[in-house]
């Protein structure tokens, strides 16, 4: 690149921990020429494990390295560790990868999506979150999302007989911002309860009510959040077919990739899986056997832009599309990385968009835009995010845990 130095040695790499509304871990890399790159390393409920992995084992390896050599650095961090894969390692590698792509695009003077091959669309369709403790509250929540511009909505509902359920906001959201943060600031994880039979009896009726009220067109999504056995997931997928879901997410814990064969045998409801996956190997059977329709990993949790693009390129061969994970525990840096990829790839499906809190947006100033149901990463050089140290310093880290589940007989269950 004319005018761009052949090498760009890394001078510093800092691990930044802050808690504006919730905890975030960010890696800030700076080159000898003062060019800064940011990477998201936030692993909800295990934030300090990644911060320590970066501080103790990765930062010392980065100093002096050529920031231009992104692929070489990715392979070095993945292979030289000997111990591979897993959420902590891959979030750490992801943060380095995002920061180096941010630097390269800033040096090139272009938004990252241009470096990734340019825009394949004018905007990024995003889905919002609606929830309700009952149908009327749920319908109000959906209408609030539509009023805020969303053109597709994920629907989560309470279930009679289950006290506290994933995805149901404590307070109905009258404004667009869906205020739901599962990780609670507390010394121990909160215990919640679960009952698959009650859930399977209740959920189809909720979608029947939503479709009767809002019609057949609105794309509706639902997250079963890893709680069903394969045959229960098959039953749910089948029972939801009349309501034409955009997708049913995490219908069964996917460590057992073959379990999805049973689900596929019984239902044509589209399936989305992968937010707890960290590498392409977690997807191999699911993609090769066409057992899913959407790849759900976050850039932050799947090894960064380099690795995520590889997973999506593999999925493209099977007409499997992206559905990148975008909850508020993925920071605006991780979200921006997802948006640059979303704009550039061909096999884009949909993007999750949980709006970050004002406190978070004060620390992370991002240039991505939201208009009329579509996101766009913006045209600032790089990822388009800056980090406000002063604001960050006002929000010190606070230990927080995701809840866990127990069944009625006390058995620990997937949350
Ligand atoms: C969820 C997440 O957004 C989703 O699809 O599954 O909210 C998930 O529960 C959190 O990211 C866990 O940290
Ligand atoms: Mg999910």
What does this molecule look like?
The protein is built from 13 helices and 18 strands. The protein is globular. The strands form four sheets. Strands 4-5-7-8-9-10-11-12 form an eight-stranded parallel β-barrel, surrounded by four helices. The longest helix is centred in the first third of the chain and has 22 residues, at about 85-110. The model has no long low-confidence stretch (mean pLDDT about 95). It is of the alpha/beta class and about 425 residues long. Helix 7 links the parallel strand 7 and strand 8 (about 245-250). Bound molecules: D-mannonic acid and magnesium ion (MG). Magnesium ion binds near residues 223, 225, 249 and 250.
Beginning-to-end CA distance, first to last residue: 49 Å
Which residues sit in consecutive blocks of at least 5 with pLDDT less than 50?
A: none
Number of helices: 13
Shape estimate: globular
The averaged pLDDT comes out at 96
The major sheet is characterized as: 8 strands, parallel, barrel
Which percent bin holds the helix content?
25-40%
Key structural traits:
binds magnesium ion; three-stranded antiparallel β-sheet; binds D-mannonic acid; 18 strands; eight-stranded parallel β-barrel; 415 residues; alpha/beta; 19% strand
Short précis:
With 415 residues, the chain is α/β, with parallel strands linked by helices. The chain has helices at residues 47-62, 70-79, 87-108, 112-115, 135-147, 196-214, 230-240, 259-266, 284-288, 304-316, 332-344, 358-363, 389-393; strands at 10-18, 24-31, 36-40, 124-132, 153-157, 191-193, 220-223, 247-249, 271-273, 294-295, 321-324, 348-352, 364-366, 369-371, 374-376, 385-387, 404-406, 412-413. Helix 1 (47-62) crosses helix 3, helix 2 packs antiparallel against helix 3 (87-108) and helix 7 packs parallel to helix 8 (259-266).
């Amino acid at each position: 690149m004319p005018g761009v130095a052949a090498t760009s040695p890394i001078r510093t790499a800092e691990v930044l921990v802050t808690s504006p509304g919730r905890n975030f871990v960010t890696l800030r890399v700076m080159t000898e020429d003062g060019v800064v790159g940011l990477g998201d390393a936030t692993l909800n409920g295990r934030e300090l494990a990644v911060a320590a992995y970066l501080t103790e084992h990765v930062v010392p390896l980065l100093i002096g390295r050529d920031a231009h050599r992104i692929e070489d650095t990715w392979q070095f961090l993945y292979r030289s560790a000997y111990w591979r894969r897993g959420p902590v390692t891959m979030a750490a590698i992801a943060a380095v990868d995002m920061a180096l792509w941010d630097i390269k695009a800033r040096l090139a003077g272009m938004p990252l999506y241009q470096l990734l091959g340019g825009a394949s669309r004018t905007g990024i369709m995003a889905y919002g979150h609606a929830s309700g403790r009952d149908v009327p509250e749920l319908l109000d929540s959906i209408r609030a999302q539509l009023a805020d511009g969303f053109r597709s909505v994920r629907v989560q509902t309470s279930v009679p007989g289950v006290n506290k359920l994933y995805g149901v906001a404590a307070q109905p959201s009258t404004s667009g911002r869906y205020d739901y943060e599962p990780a609670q600031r507390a010394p121990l994880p909160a215990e919640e309860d679960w009952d698959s039979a009650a859930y399977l009896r209740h959920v189809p009726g909720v979608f029947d009510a939503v479709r009767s009220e809002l019609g057949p067109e609105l794309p509706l999504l639902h997250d079963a959040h890893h709680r069903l056995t394969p045959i229960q997931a098959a039953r749910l997928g089948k029972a939801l077919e009349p309501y034409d879901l955009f997708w049913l997410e995490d219908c069964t814990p996917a460590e057992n990739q073959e379990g999805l064969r049973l689900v596929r045998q019984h239902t044509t409801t589209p399936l989305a899986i992968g937010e707890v996956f960290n590498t392409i190997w977690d997807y191999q059977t699911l993609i090769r056997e066409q057992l899913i329709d959407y790849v759900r990993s976050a850039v932050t949790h799947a090894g960064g832009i380099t690795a995520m693009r590889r997973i999506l390129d593999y999925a493209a061969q099977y007409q499997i599309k992206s559905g990148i994970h975008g909850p508020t525990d993925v920071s605006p840096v991780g979200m921006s990385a997802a948006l640059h990829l979303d704009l550039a790839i061909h096999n884009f499906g949909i993007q999750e968009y949980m709006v970050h809190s004002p406190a978070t947006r004060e620390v992370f100033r991002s240039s991505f835009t939201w208009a009329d149901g579509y996101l766009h990463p913006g045209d600032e050089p790089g990822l388009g995010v800056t980090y406000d140290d002063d604001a960050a310093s006002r929000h010190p880290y606070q230990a927080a845990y995701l809840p866990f589940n127990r069944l009625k007989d006390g058995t620990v269950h997937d949350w």
